[in-house]
Amino acid sequence: MPKLIEKRSKKVGLPPGSPVHIGEKRAGKVKITIIDYDKARFQEKEAKTIEECFPFKDKPTITWINIDGIHQVDIIEKIGNHFDIHPLVLEDIANTGQRPKMDDFVSYIFVVLKMLYYDEKENETKAEQVSLILGPNFVISFQESEGDVFDPIRERIRSDRGRIRKMGAAYLAYALIDAIVDNYFIILEKIGEKIEDIEDELVTNPTPETLQAIHNLKREMIFLRKSVWPLREVISRLERWESSLIHKSMGIYLRDVYDHTIQVIDAIETFRDMLSGMLDIYLSSVSNRMNEVMKLLTIIATIFIPLTLIAGIYGMNFKYMPELGEPWGYPLVYFVMLVIGVLMVIYFRRKKWL
Amino acid sequence: MPKLIEKRSKKVGLPPGSPVHIGEKRAGKVKITIIDYDKARFQEKEAKTIEECFPFKDKPTITWINIDGIHQVDIIEKIGNHFDIHPLVLEDIANTGQRPKMDDFVSYIFVVLKMLYYDEKENETKAEQVSLILGPNFVISFQESEGDVFDPIRERIRSDRGRIRKMGAAYLAYALIDAIVDNYFIILEKIGEKIEDIEDELVTNPTPETLQAIHNLKREMIFLRKSVWPLREVISRLERWESSLIHKSMGIYLRDVYDHTIQVIDAIETFRDMLSGMLDIYLSSVSNRMNEVMKLLTIIATIFIPLTLIAGIYGMNFKYMPELGEPWGYPLVYFVMLVIGVLMVIYFRRKKWL
Amino acid sequence: MPKLIEKRSKKVGLPPGSPVHIGEKRAGKVKITIIDYDKARFQEKEAKTIEECFPFKDKPTITWINIDGIHQVDIIEKIGNHFDIHPLVLEDIANTGQRPKMDDFVSYIFVVLKMLYYDEKENETKAEQVSLILGPNFVISFQESEGDVFDPIRERIRSDRGRIRKMGAAYLAYALIDAIVDNYFIILEKIGEKIEDIEDELVTNPTPETLQAIHNLKREMIFLRKSVWPLREVISRLERWESSLIHKSMGIYLRDVYDHTIQVIDAIETFRDMLSGMLDIYLSSVSNRMNEVMKLLTIIATIFIPLTLIAGIYGMNFKYMPELGEPWGYPLVYFVMLVIGVLMVIYFRRKKWL
Amino acid sequence: MPKLIEKRSKKVGLPPGSPVHIGEKRAGKVKITIIDYDKARFQEKEAKTIEECFPFKDKPTITWINIDGIHQVDIIEKIGNHFDIHPLVLEDIANTGQRPKMDDFVSYIFVVLKMLYYDEKENETKAEQVSLILGPNFVISFQESEGDVFDPIRERIRSDRGRIRKMGAAYLAYALIDAIVDNYFIILEKIGEKIEDIEDELVTNPTPETLQAIHNLKREMIFLRKSVWPLREVISRLERWESSLIHKSMGIYLRDVYDHTIQVIDAIETFRDMLSGMLDIYLSSVSNRMNEVMKLLTIIATIFIPLTLIAGIYGMNFKYMPELGEPWGYPLVYFVMLVIGVLMVIYFRRKKWL
Amino acid sequence: MPKLIEKRSKKVGLPPGSPVHIGEKRAGKVKITIIDYDKARFQEKEAKTIEECFPFKDKPTITWINIDGIHQVDIIEKIGNHFDIHPLVLEDIANTGQRPKMDDFVSYIFVVLKMLYYDEKENETKAEQVSLILGPNFVISFQESEGDVFDPIRERIRSDRGRIRKMGAAYLAYALIDAIVDNYFIILEKIGEKIEDIEDELVTNPTPETLQAIHNLKREMIFLRKSVWPLREVISRLERWESSLIHKSMGIYLRDVYDHTIQVIDAIETFRDMLSGMLDIYLSSVSNRMNEVMKLLTIIATIFIPLTLIAGIYGMNFKYMPELGEPWGYPLVYFVMLVIGVLMVIYFRRKKWL
Q1: Contacts of C310 (CB under 8 A, 6+ apart)
Q2: pLDDT tens for residues D17-72?
Q3: Are C173 and C132 contacting, i.e. CB atoms less than 8 angstroms apart?
Q4: Residues D167-221: pLDDT tens digits?
Q5: I want to staple A68 with a disulfide (CB 3.0 to 4.6 A). Which of A31, A59, A62, D44 is the partner?
Q6: Distance of alpha carbon E354 from alpha carbon E352, whole angstroms
Q7: CB-CB neighbors (< 8 A) of D316 in chain E
Q8: Closest Cα of chain E to D169: distance in Å?
Q9: Which of D161, D160, D225 is nearest to D191 (CA)?
Q10: Which among C219, E280, B287 is positioned nearest to A280, based on CA atoms?
Q11: Residue C41 CA to chain centroid, in angstroms?
C-alpha cells in the first residue's frame, strides 16, 4: 500500500532550502538525457556528468534535460546553481512529499506533478513525483526513477511528428504534462474494471474479501484524489497565468489538458460514490444473510421443539396414562406430529419464509 | 449498465489533436443531412459525401449540417479542415468521454452536451455525446447515432412554425440545446415513476431485489448527475458570454434553457435524497423483520423448553417417585403445562410481542 | 404525497414560448378579480372576461389583477399579449414545475414563488405556484386555484390600513410575497408539532409506523426545501436590483421578507438535522430491543437446557444406575436442578442481564 | 427542551411593521433602567414610565436605556416613536423568533443577538433575544426578562473601571455584545463537561440512557449553532461597516469579539464531531454486546444439545440395546459426555470465544 | 486527552484587555532568553528580570526575546507596556484558548500559532500556544513552557548557518513559524504509524479495543484539525499582506511554509477519511462475526434437534410399538440418525456455511 505520509523527520531542524531526499530509497545511478532541437536541428544524448548539460542553457534551441533519479542530491544542487534555481525549489524537487503545485519565479516556472502507474506485482497504484522547470528555452524534468511515459514524446520529437518541433519550450512542458494526465486514464480504466468485477461479486457471492477489496479501492481513491485534485488548480493557473514564458497561443492546449484533468477528477468522484454505494449493499447483504440464517433456525426450532415435547410427554412414566395401552396410540402420535408439522410449514409459507 | 469510463488507452501516446474514435463501437454508414434556410428560402437534403456540405460555408443563409455517427474519423477531419476547426476540437468530437463544455474560438463556438435516452430493452438510461459547432451562419451538429430528438426542430424549420426561420444560427443552436434539455424531463419522469414504484414496494413487501433496484437507481443518478451538472455552467457561460456570434437578444432564451437545466439538477438532487432515505428505510425494515423472527423463536423456545423439562422429569426412572403412581399425576402435568403456557403467553402479551 | 416531478412530456417538441398547462388537472372556471386603488380611490370587481382588465393598463392608479386558475391557457395568452409579456414568461406561468425565480424584463419584473398550504384531508403539505408580474403601475398575480392567503391584503387595501394605499405597485408585490412567506411559518409550526410528537413516541414506544412517519417528514422536508431555498436568492436579488420599478425605499421591506425567508430556511435545516438524529435513535432502539429479545432467549435456554440434560440422563434405561434405586435420588435431582437454576440467575444478575 | 419554532400564527395577515409579542409568555412588569454618563458625570435610575427616557435623546452624554421585558408592546412602540425607530425594527424587537442580524438605518444601527444561559432546573440551555439600538449618543437594549449578564458592565461604568467611560456609545454597544459572547463560553464549558461525562460512561457502562443523553446534546448543539452562526456575520459586518456611528478605532475591539465568536463556533463544531463519533461508538458497543449474548447462547446450545441427544438415545425403549445391560454403560456415558464437553470447550477456546 | 475547551469562566465580567492566564496550571519560573544579532555581531543571554530586555527595543540589530511561560501575567504586562503592545494582544497571549490568527497593528504584527508535540507518557498529542510579535527589528515569542523546537534556529543563528543572520526580523519570525510547521510532520508520522498498526489489527484480529483506538485517533484528528486549519489562512494572509514589516522577498519563503501547511492539512483530511473507512470495516467485521456465531448455532440446532426428536419418539412408553421389539430397531435408528446428519451436512456445504 502507498505510504500514508513520507518520512520527513530527518529534515526537521535544517535551514529552509537544504535539499534532502525524502521518499522511497532507490539504488542505481541517476540517468541524465538531453534532447536539443528546433525546427531544423535535432540532437539526443545521454550525459555522463551533470556538467554536460550546462552549455545548453544559453543555446537558442529548445533543450529538454530529463533526470531520472532524485536521490543524488548533489546533482540537483549543481544543476540548480547553474540554472539559477531557488534553493527552496531544489528542496521541493528532492522531497517527494509535495502536492502538485505551480510557482512562477519570473525567469522560470516550477511545476510539481504526480505520475501514476500501476504496479502489477503488488496489484496497486503507485505515484511518482515529477518536477518540471520551464525556462525561456529549456525544460528540466526530474523523475524518481526511469519511466516510459515520456517515450512517445521523445519519439515525436525525433521523427518531427505533430506540432512539437515547431513550438517552444512551453509546448514541450505542456506535452509532458499532457502525457502524465493521459496516463491517468489507464489507471482509471484498471480501477473501473476492478469496481465492475466487485459489483458482479456483490450480487453473486459477497464474502469478507469483497469488503476488503472495497476498502482497498476506497483507500486507493483517497490516494488518487490527493494526487489529482491539486493538479486542477495547477493547470488552471498555468492557463490564466500572464508570463512571458507561456505564449497566449498555449491557452487552447492548456485548456485541453485542463478538461482532461476535470474528466479524471469526475471519474474519481464517480468511483467514490459507487464504492460508497457498494459498501451499503455489502452491509445490507450481510444483514440479509443473517436474516436467512435466523429464519432457518427459527423454522427448525419452531417445528421440532413442540414435537419433542409430545414425544417427551409419552415418555413419562405415570402409571395411569390410558393412551399408552391403546394400539392406536403410537400411530396417532405420528399423525398428530405430522399435522403439527404441516400446519407449521403452511404458516411459514404464508409468512413467505419458505 | 453504462460503462464507468470510456476506454482511452489506445489514444495514449498520440500527439494532441489526433482525432480517434473513443466510445461504443458502432457499425453502419455515417448519415449527413443538410438543412439550409432563411426567412424566405428552405432547402433540405441528405449528403452522400461530406464534400457536398462545403459550399454552404459561405452562403448567407443559415445552414444546419447534422452528422449522425462519429466513428468515421476521416469525415470529421475533412469537415474540420474545410470549416477551419481546431484539431483539438476534432479530437473532442470523436472522443465520447467528454464532459459537457463550451469553448469559444472567436470564429466559432464549440459546445459538447450529453443527450440522454431511455433504452427500453436494457431498461436503463443511456447517454450519447452531441457536439455543436456554432459559426456565424452555420451550425454543425455531431451525434453518435441517428436519433429523433431533433425531428421537431426540423419540422418547425420546414413548416416555418415559431420564431426559428426568422432568427440566426445562434437561435438554431439554442433550439438544439433546448431540445436536448427538454428530453431530460422524459428521463426524469421515467425515473420518478420507478422511484415511486419502489417506495410502494418498500412499504408492502421489501425484498433484496428492492435493494438492488435502489442501488441501480443510485448508480443511474450518479451517471445522470455527471452528464447534467456541467451543463449548468456551459449554458450559464453561453448566456453571459460576449461574443459576436451570440446576439444579446438570445439572453432570454438561454436564460430559459438555463432555468430548465436547474430544474433538472434540482430533480436529480431530490431523487438522490429520496433514494438515500429509501435505503435507510430498507435497512431498518430488514432489522425489523429480524426482530420479528427472533421474537417468534424466543416465544416458542421460552414456552416449550420449560414444558419439555417437565416431561423429561417424569420420564426419569427413579424408583421412588410417588406422583407417578397417582391417577391424578398425568392430568395434573397437563394442567401445570397449560398454566405455564398461558402465563407465558400473558407475559408476552404484556411485552407487546404477541 | 406530492408528485416528485411534474409531467412535462406533452410539451416536448413544441417551440419555446408555447404556453401549455403542466400540473395537476383542475376543473372549474378561472376567476379574475381586479382591485384598483390609489391614496384616494378604491375599486374592486370580478371580471367576467379577461378583456375587462385591459383598460387598467394605462390608468395612473395601482391595479392588482388576480387570476385564480392557470389551466385555461388562452386567458394567459390574451393577458400576455395585451400587457406585452414575453411568450417564455407565459409558458412559465402555465407550467407549474418552475423553481422560484425572478427575471427582469425592464418594463416589468416576473417573479415565481411557491405557496405552501397544509392539506388536512391528505395530512400533508402541498405547494401551489404563484406567478407575479410587476409593472410600473400594476401587479398581475396568477394562482393555481382560489386561495385565501391574499385576503388580508385585500382587506388592508379596502380599509386603507397600514401603508399599502400610500405606496406603489412594488409595495403591493412585496405585500403579496410577504403574505406567502408568512404563510410558511404556519406550515413550519405544523411540522414542528409533528416532529415533537414523534420525538415523544420515540422515547415511549417506537414502532415501524414511527419510522414511516420520520421518513414521510424527511420527504416533506426535501419538498419544502426545494420550494423555499431558491426564494432566498429571488428576494436577495430583488433587494439589490437596480430597476426603475423598485424604488430604493423598498429596500428595507425586502430586507425584512428576506430575513423571514432565512428564518424559514433555518427552521427547515434544523428540522432536517433533527429528523436525521431521530432516525439514528430509532435504529438504535430497534437494536436495543433485539438485544432484549436475545437476552431473554439466552437466559431461558441457558437455564433450562442443562436441566433438561439432567432429566434426560435419569431417563436412560441402563440397568446399573445405582442412584435410581435410592429414595433420596428423586428429591436430590430437584435440589441439584434448583441449585443450578439459582446459580445461573445469580450469574445473569451479575452480568446485569436481569 | 427549547421550542423548535416560535408560534407566529397570530401574526399572519397583519400589515408589516405591526409589533406583536411572539415568544414565551412572561408575566411581571417591564423594568426600565437608565444609565447616563460621560468622562466626568454618572447618573443611574430606574424609570417608572417610558416617558422618563425621552429627555436623554438629545443630551450630549452617553445614555444606556435597558428594557427588561418585551411583552408590553406599547412600551416598545412609544420608545420607537420617540427615537424614530422604523416600525419593522419594532416588530423584530417584539418577535423573539429572529436570527441574529445587523441592520444599518443611517441614524442608528439595529442589532439582534441571542443570549444563552443555562437553566439549572430544567438542565438545559435556553436562549433569550437581546436587541440593541445604537444611536449617536445612546444605546437602547431590550431583553426578554431581567438578567445579570450586563451587571459587570454597569459596575464598570459606575466605578469608572477600564476604558468604558472614556469611549462613546459604540464602545458601550460593543461591551454589551462582548458580555453576551463571553457568556457563551460558560455554556460551552457546561456542555464540554457533560460530553466528557458521557464519554466516560460510554467506555464503562453504556445504557439506552447514554444514547438519549447523546441525542439531547446533539439537539442542543443544533440549537446553539442556530443562535451563534449568524452572529459571526453580524460582527464581521459591524467590523467592516463604514458608518459614522462606529469610529475606526472600534475595529480592534470588534475584531476581538469576532475572534471569540469564531472560537465559540469552533467549539460547537468540535462538539458536533465528537457527538457523532460517540454515537458510532454507542451503536457498535450495542452490536458488541449482542455478539456476547449470542456467543453465550451458542456455546450453551452447542455443548448441551449433543449431550441431550446421547441421554435421549439411552432413554429409548428398544429391547435389544446391549449397552444397557452392561455395568460400565452408565459411567461410560458420563465419560463420553465429559469428553464431548471438554472438546467443545477447547474448540471455543481456540476460537477465542471463551 | 486534550481538554475540549479551556476554562474561561474566571474571565467573565472583566473589562476587555485584562490579561488573565487561561490554560493548564504550570509551576516554575518564567525563563527569558535574549538573542541579539546582525551580520557581524552575535549576543545571547538569559535575562533575570524582564527589564533587561527593554534596551534592545531601539537597537538597530535584530533581537529575539523568547519567553517560556505565560502564567506570570505581570511579565507579559510589563513587556507589553514597554513595547507598546495593545492590551487586547496581551490578553490573547495569556489566554491559551486562541485559534491561530494574525493581526496587523501597523507598528507590529501579532501571530498566534499552536505548537504540537507528542506526549510519550500519556501517549497522545498535545498542543501549546505560541505567540509571536514581529516588530521592525525584534521578534518576541511566548511559549507556554520550555521547549526544544526552536533550538535548531538558535544553533543556526549562533553558527551563522543558512541565510538567517543576513536577513531581518521577518525572516526570523518566518523561521520560527517554519520550525513549528515542520514539527507537525513528526506528529503526522506518529499518527500515520498508529493508523497503519490499527489497519493491520483490523484484518487479523479486531477487538473492541481496536474500536476504541479508532475513536481516540478520530478525536485526535478533530483536535489537530482545529489547530492547523486556521493556520492556513494565517500564513496565506501574511504572504499577501502589504506591510512595511514584511519585505517582498519574504514572499517565496512564506509560500513555502504555506505549501507545508497545506500538506499537513491534506494529510489530516486523508487520515480522517481513512479512519472513517476503518470504522466501517470494523462495524461490518462485527456483523460478520455475528453471522459466524449464528451459523454455528443454526447448524448445531438443525442437525441435533431432529435427532433428539427421534430419540424421544423411541423413548415413548406405548405398549404397541412393534419396532421396539425388533433386533434391527436399535442399529436402524443409529443409521437413520447418521443419514439425517450427513444430509444436513451436505445441505450446509451446498449453502457454503461449512
Answers
A1: C333, C336, C337, C340
A2: 788 888 776 667 889 999 999 988 899 999 888 888 888 888 889 999 999 988 88
A3: yes
A4: 889 999 999 999 999 999 989 999 999 999 998 888 777 888 888 899 889 988 9
A5: A31
A6: 5
A7: 311, 314-315, 330, 333
A8: 16
A9: D225
A10: E280
A11: 40
